[in-house]
Amino acid sequence: MALLQQSDVRNRLLGALEPEDFAHLQSALELQTMRLRQVVIASHTAITAAYFPEEGFISITADGTSGRVEIGLIGREGVIGAGPILLGDDRSPHTHFVQMDGHMLIIDADVLRAAVERLPALRRLLHRYIQAQHTQTAQTAFANARGNTVTRLARWLLMCHDRVDGDQIIVTHDFLSYMLGVERPGVTAALRTLEKDGLVRKRRGNVEILDRHGMLDCAGDSYGGAEAEYARLIEGRSEPLE
Questions:
Q1: pLDDT in tens, 31-47
Q2: Residue 102: which of 75, 82, 123 has the closest Cα?
Q3: Which of 127, 183, 190, 209 has the fewest Cβ atoms within 10 Å of its own Cβ atom?
């Protein structure tokens, strides 16, 4: 079978690699399907691979006896599992599962670990991504502490919008409640507010983004900091987000 070419890869981290570094990983990358609700990394379980989403995205959740709350969202801009692999550990206390199905490229953890030891530019890029992901987690904590349900929902929908093609976000009210840690009636009321303001259109099982700029205004400073940090660290950009 022909090797995957860097020009065909949709994952932005893999696309940002130096060609010689991508060539080093090329034969070890395996395309796999991401199935809805599939647990990619279970909490407190040995991590055997890293996962580069090509399409779809994955939620990172903190789990407790009272339930589960999303603390991170990773799509084709990132990689799942690289933090523990690169930082000398082999597991995470958090669950990583597929929230929107698609495809991902996976690589054995030991292969990636060895490549990072040999390739300084690869190591630098992945360490920068880990920093960007830490910023997203901090931004989530800020949004949860300072934002109301409408603001938090607007931020979450914008993050999903960043990671899909088109304007349709496939999600139910129950799942939004689950991810945001808010009772279902609160999510329903927040969606109604966004729809009344002409920012979204909700249908059974999905939400359509109608006015992204309006959503940005609604989300305020709960959105944008992590995205700007990713653009600075990974892409070398500093222009305002849109």
A1: 999 999 999 999 999 99
A2: 75
A3: 183
d(CA 97, CA 57): 9
CA–CA separation, 143 vs 177, rounded Å? 15
Q: Are residues 112 and 151 located together in one domain of the fold?
A: no
List, for residues 124-183, the tens digit of each pLDDT value.
Answer: 999 999 999 999 999 999 998 888 999 999 999 999 999 999 999 988 777 787 778 788
How many domains is the chain built from? 2
Last residue in a domain, options 143, 175, 191: 143
Expressed as residue numbers, the domain containing 36 is 6-143
Domain end point (choices 143, 172, 204): 143
Q: Which residues pair with 68 in a beta bridge?
A: 63
